[in-house]
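Extended Data, panel c. Modelled sequence:
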Amino acid sequence: MDARVKLRIGTADMAGPEDALLIEGAGGVPDGAVHARFVLPEGTAHGISCACCLPRGPVAEALSGLFLQRVRGEVRFFSGIVAVPAGVAGEAAIRAALREDPMVSARFRLTGE
């Protein structure tokens, strides 16, 4: 059994009562929804997960924050996350974090493909 938190990429309206949201930018959030936001840096010369520019990317930081809030009981329990990218770059950043950040890949797994 895989105990990692399930993460799927979609839209905010796909989230159920036991899901949290990971939202790129300033997109809307349903009232009372557990959520975290991330913003991709503009104009970086290197790739999304470049360690010389960003030791941990914004997606990894946002997911880590959600995980810590869940563990500490600061938010209601969630069993899954719906990631809501604003575009192709946001989706690529989410996938890169799940693939390349050791803490993110240990805590979360991509589902729904």
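The longest strand covers residues 19-24. This feature is highlighted in the accompanying rendering.
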